[in-house]
Design goal:
The complex is a heterodimer. Chain A is built from three helices and 53 strands. Chain A is mainly beta. Among the domains of chain A are: 127 residues, no CATH class; 108 residues, Sandwich (Immunoglobulin-like); 86 residues, Immunoglobulin-like. In chain A, a hairpin with a 5-residue loop joins strand 16 and strand 17. Chain A is elongated, with a radius of gyration of 40 Å. The termini of chain A are far apart. The N and C termini of chain B lie far apart (72 Å). In chain B, strands 1-2-3-7-6-5 form a six-stranded antiparallel barrel. A six-stranded antiparallel barrel of chain B has the order 12-13-14-17-16-15. Chain B is of the alpha+beta class. Chain B folds into three domains: 263 residues, no CATH class; 116 residues, Ubiquitin-like (UB roll) (Roll); 160 residues, no CATH class. In chain B, helix 5 packs antiparallel against helix 6 and helix 7 packs antiparallel against helix 8. The radius of gyration of chain B is 29 Å and the shape is elongated. Chain B is built from ten helices and 33 strands. The chains are: A mainly beta, B alpha+beta. At the A-B interface, helix 3 of A face strand 29, strand 30, helix 9 and strand 31 of B.
Chain lengths: 661, 622
């Protein structure tokens, strides 16, 4: 079975390679979507599957969801001594207690968000926003009291208890407070940054991560701090400690969108732009190593399990990453909520909570019984006819497709096609968008690559303007005569396939188009120099035909034409008749075959050409009379010359000799 | 709600009795329908030209204008009469009943501006009577009480929501005295100027200064009200119980007491069930209105080319305007409308003939703030019209049903003197009124207003002239000394120095430092969850006597219901700005503020740019 699949794939790959080789790079020919690396494979939806960084989709862990009714997001979690989970939430500042499937509101802080939790003995500590209050709650009866409100702190981002005192990481003044049992808070560390977002304890040493610079500090005592590392980006969201090494999530968050009336009043905001996430290891010697990065998702939290496996919460698409001790990364879990905001790994298996909206998930010991992998929506850019669907992998899998013309799958899309268990034709109808779903039928099934072939519908080119190339000319300069007309046209070519142009012309008053050049001349640029020396003067219309025959087989070729406005071809100069000098004026007629006369000039005795007017002061006809006054002639013989231009820049001059007294 | 229950039970019982009576008795007048009206028919109308007794005037049908308004025809008629021949269309005659063949045909209601002949439009009586039994929501008139000796009709609809008078709910954004009336005005379409116009409703003002009259004209004319200084205070009561008669004068009392504002019109028909119809057109098109009405006495019909109108004055409060609709207003005689007692005291005006005013104003969301402001401004101008600088301290308490009395104090400055009382329109008094009337959480109303205004004739204001710092480049994590030059009248300018903290997180940023008086600065406010939240929001503001330095930070904050979170790091901002569900946090720009109370009103504003070094100089030079 496996061998046959491999042969089929080899044949299909060879066929597709041949197709690509036979076609120009920009041809509208058969194309394919190929999903064969971890980024592409993990870009869709994972339901009971996980994607390893080596580019394998395998059956993943089962997760069990517990809804946290009445909460908008859950951002902190700790496990109690009896195994109960305590979850801090927003937007009513409630702490939930989850035991098995049982969920209850354990305490209410009256604040917006319980942003941090810590447990010491029989007391649960809760740090909150927006007033920087820290509460102490007795586990036995849920009795809650305000323990402390550190000076000028508005946000309590993290809490750590070392058995003697509580440490609180706060903003917006970037301080870590040490809080004794009576709630007295003293500044333990004052960072230069706005927020200390996370804390981690390793024996007597505290580590603190900051924003707006992504720094990690090592705190050895009150006021005794040193920078461990300055990470790229603008925030360190989480630090985990395992066997002397630090694991750090550092993000580069984009600047927020400008505040407009719309954004300030919107009832449901559009998804914010995710940041870029980085996961680092800092070993005991201070060496920093980047374990993983994702430019499309920032990381909210990292936790190290007892065996050294790391779990990382994602700020987009509800992802949890799993990083093995040998730095193999898997997209481990994908849930419907937008963000995974806190993880708890002290038990047998990870537990995590989510934001947007609030839920708690437990990773189950068994593998998922239903394992689906769904690709991201694949965009053919134009309506396309789909061909073969092939894949590489092990074990039994079945694939389905669906298609539609909207970017998001909805009711306008087709249903999932009948599943296929071996490569074969895609059964979804032609459309712009395609989505592929695979079901892994065996616990050991693996998918390594998926390819879907398609032929985009050829797109017709549009020509929006045909004219002459504009030339820069100052108004004082007469136009230069030329028999060449610089033609140019604008095209919109949606599919960017190769084009060739054919140009034709006709006299304005005729119907017959004549080709401008022979068929073997291949014009592929959208300009052409047209030599009109062999044409009689007159008005002509030029037609441009754009054809994509260079990129498409004959039945699919699309052509489009567009004609210009009438263009003047005037290769003959005007003439001057009846030039004479009388009564102090040089007079005569400037006549052009097509007209109008565009410019009249006069020069005396070979001097500069000076502009002159026609008799009526307007140069607007093909036959202009002139009577140009000549004053100040010194006694003696003079040559008076008149020059006339037509609109095409052709000129003629004539002169008369007169004697002044 | 609970507190209203006995009242509404009484209303309901009274209504059942009335309905029973109505079912037995022959109900309603003999009427003539539009279909029986013919051109040339002659009849008569009834209206009061002087005193309280209606007089007849002749009416001759010109024709019938079908579908003049949706579902409503209009009878065109001439009114040959020695007065009406010259007065043409008379404001205050609206509602005068018109009879043909001895049967009630409708009400005098429309006329042409600058018309040359006494041709009027008559609203057919059947359109008007169709409104008379229209039910109303019991919550529409909080505070109204049934008169035991008078019949009333029951409230017929169960309450579904608090009435907001068709305006958006008040959620804490600052308002002034004009906000609601102007918002309501946007819902009212003024008839085109060249067509038939409803005969204006003269609003007789008593005890108002010309400036306040003008202000009321600006605000109320778009509603078809014609405020005019016409006396119109309280006429001596006759001792007899008040009553309305067909063709008699009727007033709608917006203000009464030491000042008065009464809209004048005419009763078309008094129905036996306790209600009456009047006007023949809407007063303000306000639907269920709850405005107090009264009997009235006509002093004179003033004839004018521009606008003729009746000069009149109120006699005695009687009834409530319950419906303000297209073809008529409907008055329930058995219901006493709620009003707001307002007491105004002025201190610091030596020799003023009067320093205390007591009025009652109509209780209605769109109108009450304007009415209270007009009373306040009028009292102030009447006592102290000096054209000189005045600083004021306004201490006031506002009774809000269900929430006790709220006391606040505002200070301010009137550059053009007390005559220009518009500076008072921004008192938080008007925000409190909106909390009562416009909150989206529970029905409430203003039950009382007491206001004490201390005036001090002085240009006691510090104007921010300029500000500077030693160098535009500053170190992060340090305090920067900002010097502000304040200009005071008749005194040398003073330089105040404030210390503004530049946080370390601002390293490398270019920041704007804004300097303002406290009244110009608003902190972001949380979205309210209840009336108490709204009251807290109104209470929180910077006194006008504070100098506020605001450093505009790049960080964003988010507003939620009941909470404001400042200066969020970007990741947390992203998490809290959720996309699922409704009501996500709403973003705002974060400011770090420092304040200093100068003891006098601060005016003016300026701003500076601060370039914050990446690293403090000391550290950089190490």
């Amino acid at each position: 079975m496996l061998r046959r699949l491999t042969v089929l794939l080899a044949l299909a790959t060879a066929a597709s390679s041949a197709l690509f080789l036979a076609s120009p790079a920009d041809a509208v020919s058969t194309r394919h979507f190929t999903l064969d690396d971890a980024t592409e494979l993990a870009a869709g939806e994972l339901e009971g599957t996980m994607v390893w960084s080596t580019g394998q989709v395998v059956v993943g862990a089962q997760v069990a969801r517990v809804a946290l009714e009445g909460a908008a997001l859950a951002s902190s979690i700790v496990r109690g001594p009896d195994g109960a989970l305590y979850v801090g939430t927003a937007e009513a500042g409630k702490i939930f207690r989850v035991r098995g499937e049982s969920v209850e509101v354990f305490a209410e802080t009256g604040q917006l968000l319980v942003s941090s939790l810590a447990l010491a003995g029989d007391t649960l500590y809760a740090g909150t926003l927006p007033e920087g209050r820290i509460f102490a709650i007795t586990l036995a009866d849920g009795a809650i009291r305000e323990l402390s409100r550190p000076e000028n702190a508005e946000h309590v981002w993290a809490l750590v208890h070392d058995g003697r005192q509580l440490f609180a990481a706060t903003g917006p003044e970037g301080k870590v407070f040490a809080i004794d049992a009576r709630g007295n808070a003293s500044v333990y560390f004052d960072a230069d940054e706005a927020h200390v977002l996370c804390l981690a304890r390793d024996g007597e040493v505290l580590y603190a991560g900051t924003n707006d610079d992504a720094l990690v500090y090592r705190l050895r005592g009150p006021g005794r701090a040193e920078i461990v590392h300055d990470f790229p980006g603008n925030e360190v969201t989480s630090i985990a400690v395992h066997e002397g090494a630090l694991y750090v999530t550092a993000n580069d968050m984009p600047a927020p969108r400008p505040i407009t009336t719309k954004t300030a009043r919107s009832s449901a905001s559009e998804p914010p732009n995710p940041g870029k996430g980085r996961l680092y290891r800092v070993d005991a010697e201070g060496r920093v190593e980047r374990l993983h990065h994702d430019d499309g998702m920032h990381f909210t939290t990292v936790r190290a399990a007892a065996d050294g496996t790391l779990y990382v919460g994602g700020g987009k698409d509800g992802r949890v990453l799993r990083v093995t001790p040998d730095a193999l990364v898997a997209t481990y879990v994908d849930v419907d909520e937008r963000q995974v905001l806190a993880l708890e790994v002290s038990g047998d298996r990870p537990v995590f909570v989510t934001g947007d909206s609030a839920a708690l998930y437990r990773v189950q010991p068994q593998q998922a019984t239903e394992a689906f992998w769904t690709s991201k929506v694949l965009d053919a850019e134009f309506s396309a006819r789909f061909g073969q669907l092939t894949w590489r992998g092990d074990g039994r899998v079945q694939l389905q497709t669906r298609s539609g013309n909207g970017a998001e799958p909805d009711a306008t899309w087709t249903e999932w096609s009948q599943p296929i268990t071996s490569p074969g034709p895609i059964r979804s109808p032609a459309a712009r968008f395609l989505q592929i779903r695979a079901k892994l039928l065996e616990p050991t099934s693996v998918i390594r690559a998926v390819q879907a072939y398609y032929l985009p519908q050829n797109q017709r080119t549009a020509i929006s303007r045909v004219g002459t190339k504009a030339t820069k000319r100052t108004t004082d300069e007469p136009p230069g005569p030329s028999t060449n007309v610089e033609l140019t046209w604008d095209v919109q070519n949606p599919d960017d396939d190769s084009l060739r142009y054919r140009l034709r012309y006709r006299a304005e008053d005729q119907d017959v188009w004549r080709p401008m050049f022979r068929e073997d001349v291949r014009v592929t640029k959208n300009e052409y120099r047209w030599n009109t020396s062999g044409l009689p003067d007159g008005w002509y219309v030029v037609e441009v035909e754009a054809s994509d025959e260079l990129a498409n087989p004959a039945p699919n070729v699309l052509r489009t034409t567009r004609a210009s406005e009438p263009l003047l071809v005037d290769n003959h100069p005007p003439r001057i008749e009846g030039i004479a000098f009388r009564d102090g004026r040089v007079s005569g007629r400037a006549i052009d075959a097509l007209g109008p006369i565009a410019r009249l000039e006069v020069a005396i005795d070979g001097g500069d050409w000076l502009p002159a007017y026609s008799e009526d002061g307007l140069l607007d006809t093909r036959d202009e009379r002139f009577a140009i006054p000549i004053e100040g002639l010194a006694p003696g013989s003079h040559v008076i010359a008149v020059r006339a231009y037509d609109a095409a820049g052709n000129s003629v001059s004539a002169e008369v000799v007169t004697t002044a007294r | 709600m609970t507190s209203h229950a006995p009242t509404w039970i009484a209303l309901f019982v009274a209504g059942l009795l009335t309905l029973g009576t109505a079912a037995i008795a022959q109900r309603g007048p003999a009427t003539i329908g539009v279909e029986d009206i013919r051109p040339g028919m002659r009849g008569y109308g009834l209206s009061v030209f002087r005193g309280t007794e209606p007089e007849r005037f002749d009416v001759e049908v010109v024709d019938v204008l079908h579908q003049f308004l949706p579902g409503q025809d209009l009878i065109l008629a001439r009114t040959p009469h020695p007065v009406l021949d010259r007065a043409i269309a008379v404001g205050g005659m609206s509602g005068s009943p018109i009879y043909f063949d001895g049967k009630l045909a409708g009400a005098y209601a429309y006329g042409w501006t600058f018309g040359l002949e006494p041709v009027i439009g008559i609203t057919p009586i059947r359109s008007m009577l169709a409104e008379i039994d229209r039910p109303f929501r019991p919550t529409s008139f909080p505070g109204a009480r049934p008169l035991p000796e008078r019949p009333t009709q029951p409230a017929a609809r169960s309450p579904r929501r608090a009435s907001l008078d068709g305006l958006p709910p008040y959620l804490g954004a600052r308002v002034d005295a004009f906000s609601t009336v102007r918002a309501h005005r946007q819902n009212v379409v003024t008839p085109p100027p060249l067509g038939l116009q409803p005969a204006a409703t003269p609003l007789m003002l008593a005890g108002f200064t010309p400036r306040m009259t003008r202000l009321l004209q600006e605000e109320l004319e778009p509603f078809g009200l014609l405020p005019m200084q016409g006396g119109g205070g309280q006429a001596p009561r006759t001792g007899a119980p008040p009553s309305f008669v067909d063709g008699g004068a009727l007033g709608v009392q917006l203000i009464r007491g030491d000042m008065a504002a009464t809209g004048i019109g005419t009763v078309t028909h008094v129905a036996p069930g306790g209600r009456l119809v009047a006007f023949g057109h809407p007063m303000m098109n306000g639907g269920e209105s709850g405005l107090p009405t009264c009997t009235a006495r006509v002093l004179h019909v003033f004839q004018s080319v521009a606008r003729s109108f009746k000069l009149a004055e109120a006699i005695e409060p009687y009834g409530t305007l319950i419906h303000d609709r297209q073809p008529a207003i409907v008055v329930d005689r058995g219901l006493a409308a709620a009003t707001v007692p307002v007491r105004i005291r002025l201190n610091g005006v030596e020799g003023a003939p009067q320093t205390e005013w007591n009025v009652e104003v109509a209780s209605q969301r769109s109108m009450t703030p304007l009415l209270v402001f007009s009373a306040l401004g009028n009292a102030l101008e009447a006592s102290a019209a000096d054209q000189t600088d005045v600083v004021f301290t306004a201490r006031y308490s506002v009774g809000i049903e269900g929430h006790g009395t709220v006391q606040l104090e505002d200070r301010g400055y009137m550059a053009a003197g007390p005559g220009d009382s518009r500076a008072l329109s921004r008192l938080r008094l008007f925000d409190l009124m909106e909390v009562a009337y416009g909150n989206p959480f529970e029905p409430s109303r203003v039950t009382s207003v007491e206001l004490e205004l201390d005036l001090r004739y002085a240009r006691d204001v510090a104007i921010i002239d300029e500000a500077w710092i030693a160098t535009p480049e500053v170190d992060p994590g340090t305090d920067v000394e900002v010097h502000v030059r304040l200009v005071r009248y008749g005194a040398p300018s003073e330089v105040r120095t404030m210390r503004v903290h530049v946080p370390e997180s601002a390293a490398g940023e270019t920041l704007t430092l804004e300097l303002d008086g406290g009244s110009a600065v608003e902190d972001p406010r949380p979205d309210a969850r209840n009336v108490q939240d709204l009251l807290r929001i109104v209470r929180q503001s910077y006194p006008a006597t504070t100098l506020v330095a605001s450093l505009k930070m790049p960080a964003r904050g988010l507003r939620f219901r009941g909470h404001v979170v400042q200066s969020l790091p970007l990741g947390a901002l992203d998490s809290l700005q959720r996309t699922s569900g409704s009501g996500p946090g709403q973003p705002f720009q974060t400011y770090l503020r420092r304040t200093e109370d100068l003891g006098q009103v601060v005016a003016g504003a300026t701003q500076l740019t601060l370039r914050v070094r990446e690293t403090p100089r000391e550290r950089a030079s190490r």
